[in-house]
Amino acid sequence: MTTLQNFGVPLGGGAGRGGILMPKPKHRFRVRVINFGPIAGGLELTQQVVSVSRPTVQQSPVDVHSYNSLAYYAGKHTWNSVELTVRDDVTNAVARLVGHQEQKQMNHIEQTSAFAGSNYKFEAFIETLDGGNDGMLEQWYLEGCFLESINYGEFDYSTADAMTIQMTIRMDNCTQQGGLMPEAPQLKTGPLI
To answer: Which residues pair with 60 in a beta bridge?
Structure first.
């Protein structure tokens, strides 16, 4: 006797329960970067990722005052920063990449900066993997990225944990690839309210 059809939330209207969909496990992911540090750099960073936050967006409401009431519409949006933590390896490969990226953003030795953001900004991909080799379930594309802050961690005699480098990444825009964010969404029609 099969019982899996009894799992899930009752859908109503004689539709049954619908079963349970497999959730995306948190540990099946990778982070890839383009133009991070040296032009051809980035592989070492991908190999040392510990954790990364998924993008979050905030839509600012705009007040529309009328006679006796108040309504709102969606104003400008803001993509919030993403947190990335990587292991600091004994070859200093990751520390060199991070240092190179920081120098591209602001040369701390010469006290100079790049002519334009395009000279130092990088791109990043946060990808949810399917558990096989490199099949993707989801891909976030982060454009116009720069390091907002870098934390090189701390030493501690009481633990043998790996050293990490924590980075806050600020980006101009994010999109989801693979049809998860449609280019032409279906809009509701009706009166202009």
So the answer is: none
